[in-house]
Amino acid sequence: MTSKTAKGVRMALVGAGAMVVAATLAIGGTASAHHSFAMYDSDNQIKLAGTVSKFQWTNPHIYIELETNPGETATKVKHYTIECASPGILTRIGWKFNMIKQGDKVQVVIAPLKNGDPGALLKAVKLPDGRVFGNGGPAGRAAIEF
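^ thats the sequence. predicted structure below, dont judge the formating
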């Protein structure tokens, strides 16, 4: 192998190595950003009661679509999209894919979105039969009891 060929091979390997490092850093940054709960206001948790309009057991996160019951001053039902942990995390703490159904009346403790939109991070859910489930360690504990 000539010195020009050897130099070309070394340059190609260095370039390929730099691309692998850059791709790894880009993926790592995306993965850590994905798991941030910064958009939720965990310091000002609230309790809601309502009817489940949809329960979505899918990766990477489970979602509860909740129609809140109107109170004395509310004029209409408010729809919340509530983010939960992954199926793997929730299965390990006792959740089942069929434990929440459309039409179920539930209570939830949530960390609402900081921007005021009707979305939230679940802290705990109380099922119609009275059982209470948290949302796993990464989401944190509920600051309000049922």
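The chain is about 25% helix and 30% strand.
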